[in-house]
Amino acid sequence: MTTTYQAFVWETKEDIDRLQSSKYNLQVAKSVANPDGKPSFNVIYASHILGPNMSVSWTTQYGLNWTTDIPDPGAKVTYSGHWQPCSLGQSFDIDDDGFFVENDNNPDARDDSLNIGSNNYGDPDGVNIIIGVQDSKGDWNPIWLDSSKLVQKAHGEYQPLESVRLWFDEFLQSGTVIASQSTNYKDYKFEEHLTYYFHYSVGGEKGGTWEASPKPPPLKE
């Protein structure tokens, strides 16, 4: 069953004015586990125009794609293959033409991961695997790009994590490789709740700090 998570970010008028003066917008990245299990962030999943209440959501409908070109920081992630929906524990091979083919007999497959049984594509240098999520419109959005090549005949296991990174930066940068983080960022793991509320203080005693809560902010009279 597909689960939907949601991150709400709320800001005061004073904080909005300060962020607006730098032409900042909200940036949100999702993560895939490093070999040591810690979250790895390298692609901006979604950008949101600055406002008092900003919301970014995602589902657990994950998918696989691949590329042979690593974009420069700040550039869009491009695809060499077609998106392949993939559930946790499921496994696919990449055939010699670059298409995904289901593999029900992958001894290296892990139940907590999206699995590639074998890369059989003809490029001798290998491919870079892309992980994405599908939105309610059916469109795919990249969340992570493997900077290491998956060489021919190699297998790969990719564990998506429900951990996000939030910060503010210039421009709308959805689907691009992370280039900078102009404000302090907040890494947060969604565990007990599907929705969390975040607030970034720009000035004052708490300037440069983030707060997170499962409860919405108090309503202003």
What distinguishing features does this structure have?
single chain; mainly beta; 17 strands; 1 helix; 4% helix; five-stranded antiparallel sheet; elongated; four-stranded mixed sheet; 221 residues
Molecular structure report:
The protein has 221 residues and is mainly β. It has 1 helix and 17 strands. It has one helix spanning 13-21; strands at 4-10, 24-33, 39-40, 44-48, 53-59, 62-67, 84-85, 91-94, 100-102, 114-119, 128-134, 140-145, 156-158, 160-170, 186-189, 195-201, 209-213. The strands form 4 sheets. Strands 2, 3, 4, 14 and 15 form a 5-stranded antiparallel sheet that branches. A 4-stranded mixed sheet has the order 5-1-16-17, with no helix packed on it. Strands 7-6-11-12 form a 4-stranded antiparallel sheet, with no helix packed on it. The radius of gyration is 19 Å and the shape is elongated. The chain starts with a strand and ends in an 8-residue tail after the last strand. The mean pLDDT is 96.
Number of helices: 1
Helix content: under 10%
Count of beta strands: 17
Largest sheet: 5 strands, antiparallel
The stretches of 5 or more residues where confidence is low (pLDDT under 50) are none
Portion in strands: 35-45%
SS-derived structural category: mainly beta
Q: Can you tell me the overall shape?
A: elongated
Radius of gyration: 19 Å
Task: Please tell me the overall pLDDT.
Answer: 96
For the terminal residues, how far apart are their CA atoms?
Answer: 40 Å
- What series of H and E elements makes up the topology? EHEEEEEEEEEEEEEEEE
